[in-house]
Amino acid sequence: MIEEPYRWVEAIGNRREYIEHQLAAGSPIACLAYKDGILLFTLSRERQKIFEIYDRIAMGAIGHPGDIERLRMAAIEVASTEGFTRSAQDVSLRRLANYSLSPALKTAFEQVYGAPYLARMIFAELGRGDDANLFVRLDYDGSIHTNGGMLYRGFENFGVISGTQHSTSQMEKFLKGQDFADSDLKHALSVALDAWIVGHLTAGSDTQDELPAPDKIASHRREQLASAVIEAAVLERSSNLPITYRALAGDDLASLQKAKN
Q: Domains, the chain, ranges and CATH?
């Protein structure tokens, strides 16, 4: 009987190690604010990783496709119910994360006799008026990481996820050194792509503290664009509709397509 708590702790540790191993190969996702809204960006080879959730909320995720789909549908249902019973103005990413998704993830992770969610998610919410944009990272264990807004900490203009914690921190380190908040979409796409490259290059190493050199980023950029598919979407401030989400294609991505040559 005395051993039961220790067995639970050991089981949780093993579960965490297993999930981290499963997520390690996930393609990074970079979300960043630019002059006209928010950009969500990744490179993929198979399944969709970026999704619309509600009028001003979008989501990117890595992990098991079935778990991602269940969490995506849960997010849509909660947001839609909130919007219907109250109003679209009452739908907020903070409430969605703190009172719905995070508790569900935490419960599934801690119930060792059930299956956890194999997923890591990044949510972006376009701020209304002068309100700051919000980026929220949700992990498989229910832990939440935001882009700021707390006492003594201003808002960061980005949010990222990757297969490993180290590559996630390296992407954040890279974006902190970039100037994109007042840029156009073309420049934002270029920065997002380089952030993805940083995450991809550092995913296999937990000891590389220095960011990859610019020439290595440029070389890897050409290699990846030649073999992967660009997946990107924006939440646009200039939209005349309540729904601000728009998937990017064609002319929107022309500047990056040229980089393949």
A: 21-248 (3.60.20.10)
Tokens 């998704």, residue located:
101
Write out the chain in H/E/C secondary structure. CCCHHHHHHHHHHHHHHHHHHHHCCCCCEEEEEECCEEEEEEEECCCCCEEEEECCEEEEEEECHHHHHHHHHHHHHHHHHHHHHCCHHHCCHHHHHHHHHHHHHHHHHHCCCCCCCCEEEEEEECCCCCCCCEEEEECCCCCEEECCCCCCCCCCCEEEECCCHHHHHHHHHHHHCCCCCCCCHHHHHHHHHHHHHHHHHHCCCCCCCCCCCHHHHHHHHHHHHHHCEEEEEEEECCCCCCCCEEECCHHHHHHHHHHHC
Q: Are strands 57-63 and 119-125 parallel, antiparallel or unpaired?
A: antiparallel
Instruction: Express each pLDDT in 65-87 by its tens digit.
Output: 999 999 999 999 999 999 999 98
Token digits for 255? Answer: 């500047």
Side-by-side strand order, sheet with 134-138: 50-54, 57-63, 119-125, 134-138, 144-146
Read off the pLDDT band of 6 (50, 70, 90). Answer: low
Q: Hey, which residues does 120 pair with through a beta bridge?
A: 62
Is the model's pTM score more than 0.85?
Answer: yes
Tokens of 238: 């200039």
